[in-house]
User: Fold this.
Amino acid sequence: MNQPTIKTIAELKKSGYKHKTVKEEIRHNLICSFETKTNPFPDVLGYEDSVIPDVERAILSRHNILFLGLRGQAKTRMAREMVNLLDEWIPVIEGSEINDDPFAPISHYAISTIEELGDATPISWLHRSERYGEKLATPDVSVADLIGDVDPIKAANLRLSFADERVIHFGIIPRSHRGIFVINELPDLQARIQVSLFNILQEGDIQIRGFKLRLPLDIMFVFTANPEDYTNRGSIVTPLKDRIESQIVTHYPKTIEVSKAITTQEANILDEQEKRIEVPELCKLLVEQIAMEARKSEYVDQKSGVSARLTISAYENLVSTAERRALKESVSKTTVRITDFIGVIPAITGKIELVYEGEQEGPLNVAYRLISQAIRTLFVQYFPDPQTFKKTGRVNQKVPPNPYQSIIDWFGQGNDLVMLQDENDEAHKQTLYKVNGLYAAVKQFYPKADEAQVTLLMEFLLHGLSEFSLISKKGVEKGGYSFGDILGSMMNMSNLGGHEDEEEDI
Assistant:
């Protein structure tokens, strides 16, 4: 819709425009979205049956909202999406600092202008994208930043005394009049600053340097916060929390499918990367499973949470790892491998906070453990659980034939397999075909899989067997893994006194 052409209050009156508060406006447009079956929050995934219904109830009740949840739970995204529920254009008194409504002016400038010009008062139009204000709460935020202060330069230029209302310089909250204003990380705001919000939320008046102005600000307030017991940085003072009518608790994706959809939506993958790099479904699921494992790991601080940004960054790094190999080998196309997950380590270590046990292990080792656990979890969704083929010791209980036995035996005969991250696709495939029984095991369960799928599943099968301690796996300096006999690996470790030269035991 183009910007309306109405220029004066007289024309606005003829148009039939009616004044609405911002909360009435949002409520009305939400009701319209129900009637037209449209989704007002199209970019927010995983909240359809939990958070979004709570938000819709709050909007219908014309409430201010507090989103309470761990980092990376789309709290700010939800607030920004509410802009879609504002009218596309609204009229304002031209020149007003605080977006005065022509039919409900509140500032000295707007009131005096209308008194002077009447229906000839000029108006301008404000787009909904300009009606959103946001402030990150930090300890240095002042009342002047949020509410306003006396401007001595303005007083001097206009030759006004400091007792005149016109010398006030409005802060970001009054300038958000007739819009949505968000304060992120509310507990970080000093208690004395939080107190300054009391009257704005409840009575609508503000106080600046002795001025007590009755400014009935029309604002939809949205606050975000981590749970109060997350850190010792601060908390929301009780009277302020009491004035925020709806508190809505957010959460992480409840299923791996939702998590994958969020990553796909948010990951910044270039078109040239999409053309060059193929990411199999298995690898996409593995990225998400890493985050799922981190959110229940004994090494990770669960009060801190594991942001959805972990999977987004990890996915971007995974694609770039494969792209780097393609560029080095001068090939036009390649496929992501399990070995490429070495490249996501930096995305993991930078996104998790560790408890004491995790600090003792070290961020790098914790990251490797999370990848290993993710492989173990997904393995039983693709292949039979190796534990079902272990002998039980019961005479009458039959154990099914082990489809992995020939693979285990091949390594037991003293064979080793080194898989390097940067080896080309053909060399990678030929390395996997060296293992006796590996191809047959994959084709047994996936007879219709094509060559590329078989290659990936062969590699995944090796990693899975190592996670169930049926074969050994070690990291190598050049970037990759060395697979071998589990018993031989244990004997070598014993002979070396528990240390290995030039290899990191993963």
About this structure: The chain is about 40% helix and 15% strand. The radius of gyration is 31 Å. Confidence is low (pLDDT under 50) at residues 496-506. The chain has three domains: 9-249, 256-382, 388-393+401-505.
